[in-house]
Amino acid sequence: MTTSTPAGDQPLVIKLDGPGWRAELHVAPPPGPARTAEFDVPLTQGKNAHRQHLVTQVRYTTATNRLRTGWEKWFVKVYHCRDNYDAELLRRYLGQQSAAIQMANAELPGPSRIQVDPPWAAVPVHIVRCDGLAENVGPVRTELAATPQEIADRLRLQLPAWLTGAGPHPERYLLAISPFMELLRWDAYHGWPATEHLRDFEGMAAGLDMLHRLGTAHCDIKPDNVCRYNTHQVSGYVLIDTDSVTQLEPPPKSVRATKPYHYRGLSDWFANPKVSHLGVDPAILRAHDRFGFAVVVLTALAGRDWVDRVLLRSPDLTYTDADQDGPRTADYREQVQRALRQHWPNRDPQRRWDPLIDALAEPFGREIEAPDWWLTAWLARVIEAEQRCVVGAEPERVFEVADPAKYRTQLDDIRGRAARRPVRREDAARMGYEALAQTGVSAARRTAIGSLLLWSLVAVPVFALVFTLINALG
């Protein structure tokens, strides 16, 4: 893994190398101002471990892979630390997060085990140190006659201006680089369960279970931190924004959770003066992840507006602020069941949603703090419960299947266009619809021409006969 900087206004170039893949990323200057990011970094291990509170500045930008392999667009976070000591602590902390995510992803079954390719539970992150920039910016000689200030001035001229705005100290910068994921546009409401999304959560569930077994929790699972990857081999949901990833040991004293997508037990922990000064119990952190995962699943099945307005607000008739710490529907399993039954009434005589609702409501209770309660098993129960919702035999619908050999050219075109680069499912569907539309136009044109020829063969003799009779009678 190397970094270099072209002279002038060219973007920063970062070369990534991994088993079976490589990328040459051209990093664009960050478009916005820096924001403050805080981290609670453990210095030692054990129950009474010491922790260091780090305050850094972070800017966001993107990078483009100039090689024709791997992911094309990447997301880049640029961290600027106060000094070299903070930079080294943050590098080790982010490196541990990245390693835990890679280990969890490696356990997922799938067509590829190349680190940069899905399936993923969380998007893999690559941590790049910028202290090697000074060695690659050009021939900066450390002459005896050159003062440190002169050498620093030369570096300032050859490094990107956005990287040296606070001074030529590349050793204080860290880059966190990951494949770019576009945010999802969650549907607002689903009048019936959108269970077609359930299978797409299997990889995330298995990855989170593995992350917990490795002693790590994500801690900020919410709809805004879930995206979809889609390639010609595999697709599914994936977690992003892994800054919140936290080791369970030593127990952290603060958690980067987002309200209202927080587990009630976590709020109770910090509200209890007897334990609030202690590190958070690992069982609470695992339950916090499981609660967030269940909220995201219901967002996909029931709609985001329904989840935000009903599930994450007070169960009474008052419309309370979602950021308040009062009771919510999601804090009580019975309230969740009642709300889902109102949202999905049993109006179809052939389907009753009660088994699915009972399974979906399981994570909204304190049982999720148990060590043997796993997301993979819960998701399997939800999928099995959905199959039990059918109470009557549906009439068999028989469709005439066209010979696929007749449309081999069009099918190959659809597959070829979808397999050029990893694309979102929406883009692949759009390309498929376009190809189908072109095929339909061609088929309609051939049918119209055939019908015209058939009618011409019939109409010409009839017209000739009528014309002959008219002449004879005239």
A few lines on this structure:
This protein has helices spanning about 85-105, 150-160, 200-215, 265-270, 280-300, 305-310, 335-345, 355-360, 375-385, 410-420, 425-474, and strands at about 1-5, 10-20, 20-25, 35-40, 50-65, 75-80, 125-130, 175-180, 215, 225-230, 235-240, 245. α4 packs antiparallel against α5 (about 280-300) and α5 packs across α6. By secondary structure, the protein is α+β, with helices and mostly antiparallel strands.
General form: globular
Strand/helix succession: EEEEEEHEHEHEEEEHHHHHHHH
Poorly predicted residue ranges: 133-148, 317-323
Provide the gyration radius in Å: 30 Å
Task: Walk me through this protein's architecture.
The chain has 474 residues and is of the alpha+beta class. The protein is 37% helix and 15% strand. Strands 1, 2, 3, 4, 5, 6, 7 and 8 form an eight-stranded antiparallel beta sheet that branches. It has a two-stranded antiparallel ribbon with strand order 9-12. A two-stranded antiparallel sheet has the order 10-11. Helix 8 runs antiparallel to helix 9 and helix 10 runs antiparallel to helix 11. It starts with a strand and ends with a helix.
